[in-house]
Amino acid sequence: MVLHMLAIFGRETAHPPTLIESEEALKRSAQPLLSDEEKQAEEALCTRLIDAAYDAAKPSTRHKQLLGKGSGYLWEASPYCSYAERDGVHVMFTGEVSEWPGGVNAVSAAHDAFVRNEPPLEENDAHWLLDFYGTFGKPSSDSSTERALECMAQIKGSFAFVIYDSVHHRVLAARDSEGVQPLYWGCTDSGQLMFGSVPQDLEGCNPTAAPFPAGTLFASERHTVAYSPGDYGWVIVDDDYPGLIMSFIKATKQGDAWRNVKVHPGDGRAVRYHDVGFWVWLGAWHLEC
């Protein structure tokens, strides 16, 4: 049985990758500022979608957390689905990891703590993920993306997770390289980005939510910039760069560090992100060897 895990992010929190949005969402994302009416609409939609998933989840294990700005989390707590928060970083995790980067064996650590009749080093995999997130490097640093991919490639286990760093306005999502753990994603017409383990929880997406590509990491980081909207003076807003989708599976082609991520479109257009070395084609996701 698949456990419910749902994450929703408003337009001020995360930006979907190129052309995952509907035409209506693209129109909205082109507007740098949300009106009060749009903010209220985002909050209302987030609450409605979270509540619908909450109603479908098991009453004894379901939890929800509204994060503001049209964002929220829903999860069913179990040894294989957990949530944790520390210093403004919220994480949701499904699956089971035996070893984290740096040789941290979570199974052995839990066993040793049990034998010594001591509390475990970490309560669950979500807390291990918080520790792991701290190894990525400082957001916006030149090496943080490469460091994140190197770390992801070292994880041993099956997993799907979503991280929201409210301090650095950063959203990350990932799925194990074998695609064992289910994870879907999509975007609403209002521009809210959604991730979930149960496709029915993402019925608000347009177009229909699609499987998140296995062995990849999504990253969206909103930077604060200033712009002048005509006669109204300078206003501080977030940037409008789309999020990135990156493979953490080692490439088999000489000269490439990581596999390419492709989306095949009808018109064959592509976008190349040179700084992280991957392709995004627009259409249905698949990994290229």
From TrEMBL:
<dbReference type="InterPro" id="IPR044828">
    <property type="entry name" value="TSJT1-like"/>
</dbReference>
<dbReference type="Pfam" id="PF12481">
    <property type="entry name" value="DUF3700"/>
</dbReference>
<dbReference type="InterPro" id="IPR024286">
    <property type="entry name" value="DUF3700"/>
</dbReference>
<dbReference type="InterPro" id="IPR029055">
    <property type="entry name" value="Ntn_hydrolases_N"/>
</dbReference>
<feature type="domain" description="DUF3700">
    <location>
        <begin position="6"/>
        <end position="271"/>
    </location>
</feature>
<protein>
    <recommendedName>
        <fullName>DUF3700 domain-containing protein</fullName>
    </recommendedName>
</protein>
